[in-house]
Specification:
This protein is mostly helical and about 80 residues long. It is built from two helices and two strands, in the order E-E-H-H. Helices cover about 75% and strands about 5% of the residues. It has a two-stranded antiparallel sheet.
Amino acid sequence: MAETGTMSLGLSHLFLTVFLFNLSHYMVVPAITDVCMAALCPGEDECSLAIYLTGVQQTVQSHHTCIIIVVLFLLVLNKKK
């Protein structure tokens, strides 16, 4: 495969995918709490269950992001060898 700088073109689609995922993720996350509140506690201004579930979901997503970054880093290192 052709090399461009230090990143090979074979892995560039993974970086683009991760970039697009993170971009869309940070556009959607602020609305998740409102959607959960409308679904779990319709007509109420406060709903601790919706806020709790939203926090758990965001925690799981952040752990997933950390794992994906490590996997991509290892793929790049293996591709260089």
